[in-house]
């Protein structure tokens, strides 16, 4: 090779390097604008690159609004409730009981949605004998699930589990009404041994009037779902399994305005053409109206439900269903949901909640104030540490995180005890 050719090659390599560098720099400079959004995954969604690491601390009591920046899909959240107030003393030297410390919740990776507003609610520490307020972090203006009155909650892999016992008129519902959802998706993890209704779309609360878009467990252990836009149409799991086996199963009932689909445990079981009736109503959980066509023993659900998520404008694909089914805990499940839509109706709203401490008892003339009990578990309970109880005669529970949420000491004289420490919400990302 002669020298000129070699120098041309060296020049070209150098030029390519400079161009590459310039592209890299311009990419970094515009990392937050959507025009240069890049996507390395196969997903067709545009992904903005994440913002540089940051942290926000909210420590004054009250509600603060935080809006998730572009490109950020997960944050580290630390939340401490307000401490419990100490009890008042008595001039004879009897001390009031110490208030308990607040709960501390540390969720290391909470899925968040860019552009969505969240509330960081900071709980106030209690004054004499008062409970501290809870602190929390959750989506602002989220459609609220109104739970059944006899609810009991358990916790499973970060999911909140709701227990239903076929009690007449005991159902839960979403407070936001919906006008004729034709494209929709209903996801539910269920665990049951009883043929009963899981949910429906009803024009009236309590369920009556018009109803369809029903998901239920029919008599022979099959999962069934149906619509009625003039004619009754249903999709049903095949006879390959009895789903009333007391184990967790994942049902997805989804529709695209012309067809309905039923998936169980990630696999498509049935599809047919069909569309729901045209009316406005509410999604109701834990009950279905009697509909012989679906062959259900009890209208009211018996069993456990978790991870119920409903979209009124998405028809899930087989791939999305299998991703949801494969998500092993609530955080992963939530990440998949967030990647599909920012507007799910969820029984289990993604939230962090740290209850405040309890107040200590006031002293009597001859008796010290009673000790405050430890604070309650937080949500998710797997990430929470309950605050310690206050001492029976004066000392408050000590804080579990820095100086936030400590219970106040009871007073040992007639002067009022000092106020307990306020809570905190700290959001950080890197
Ligand atoms: C709905 O599903 C049917 C059957 O698979 C399909 O023919 C139709 O194109 C789908 N409609 C929409 C709007 O995607
Ligand atoms: C549903 O009914 C309303 C009121 O009767 C009507 O305005 C609307 O066009 C109907 N929608 C569909 C999709 O048929
Ligand atoms: C207060 O509680 C501590 C620890 O339980 C105990 O040692 C102390 O004697 C108590 N004091 C009074 C005045 O009851
Ligand atoms: C409560 O009393 C203990 C023991 O006397 C003390 O160490 C602590 O600082 C006091 N806490 C507050 C909040 O005053």
From TrEMBL:
Residue segments, region Disordered: 31-60, 355-378
Pfam family, one: Gly_rich_2
UniProt keyword Membrane, yes or no: yes
Keywords: Membrane, Transmembrane, Transmembrane helix
Laminin G domain mapped to chain residues: 182-313
Record-linked Gene3D superfamilies: 2.60.120.200
SMART domains found in the cross-reference section: LamG
Low complexity: compositionally biased ranges: 32-43
UniProt-listed InterPro entries: ConA-like_dom_sf, Gly_rich_dom, Laminin_G
Record-annotated membrane-spanning stretches: 6-27
Protein name: Laminin G domain-containing protein
Native source organism of the sequence: Galdieria partita
């Amino acid at each position: 090779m002669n020298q000129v050719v070699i120098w041309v090659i060296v020049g070209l390599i150098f030029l390519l390097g400079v161009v590459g560098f310039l592209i890299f720099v311009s990419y970094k400079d515009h990392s937050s604008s959507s025009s240069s959004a890049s996507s390395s995954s196969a997903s067709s969604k545009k992904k903005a690159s994440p913002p540089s690491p940051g942290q926000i601390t909210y420590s004054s009591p009250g509600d603060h609004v935080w809006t998730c920046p572009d490109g950020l899909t997960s944050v580290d959240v630390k939340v401490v409730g307000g401490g419990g107030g100490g009890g008042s003393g008595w001039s004879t030297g009897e001390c009031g009981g110490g208030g308990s410390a607040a709960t501390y919740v540390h969720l290391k990776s909470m899925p968040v949605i860019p552009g969505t507003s969240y509330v960081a609610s900071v709980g106030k520490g209690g004054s004499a004998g008062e409970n501290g307020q809870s602190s929390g972090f959750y989506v602002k203006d989220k459609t609220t699930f109104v739970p059944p009155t006899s609810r009991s909650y358990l916790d499973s892999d970060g999911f909140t589990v709701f227990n239903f016992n076929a009690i007449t008129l005991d159902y839960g519902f979403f407070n936001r009404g919906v006008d004729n959802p034709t494209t929709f998706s209903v996801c539910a993890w269920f665990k049951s041994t009883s043929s009963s209704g899981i949910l429906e779309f009803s024009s009236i609360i309590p369920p009556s009037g018009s109803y369809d878009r029903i998901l239920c467990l029919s008599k022979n252990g099959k999962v069934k779902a149906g619509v009625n836009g003039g004619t009754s149409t249903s999709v049903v799991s095949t006879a390959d399994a009895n789903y009333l086996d007391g184990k967790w199963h994942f049902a997805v009932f989804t529709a695209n305005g012309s067809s309905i689909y039923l998936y169980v445990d990630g696999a498509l079981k049935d599809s047919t053409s069909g569309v729901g009736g045209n009316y406005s109503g509410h999604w109701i959980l834990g009950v279905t109206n009697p509909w012989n066509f679906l062959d259900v023993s009890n209208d009211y659900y018996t069993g456990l439900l978790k991870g119920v998520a409903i979209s009124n404008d998405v028809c899930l694909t087989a791939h999305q269903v299998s991703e949801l089914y494969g998500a092993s805990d609530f955080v992963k499940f939530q990440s998949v949901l967030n990647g599909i839509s920012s507007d799910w109706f969820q029984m289990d709203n993604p939230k962090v909640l740290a209850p405040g401490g309890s107040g200590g008892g006031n002293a009597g003339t001859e008796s010290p104030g009673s000790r405050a009990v430890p604070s309650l578990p937080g949500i998710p309970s797997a990430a929470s540490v309950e605050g310690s109880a206050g001492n029976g005669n004066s000392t408050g529970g000590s804080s579990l995180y820095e100086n936030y949420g400590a219970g106040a000491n009871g007073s040992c004289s007639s002067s009022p005890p000092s106020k307990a420490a306020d809570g905190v919400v700290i959001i950080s990302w890197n």
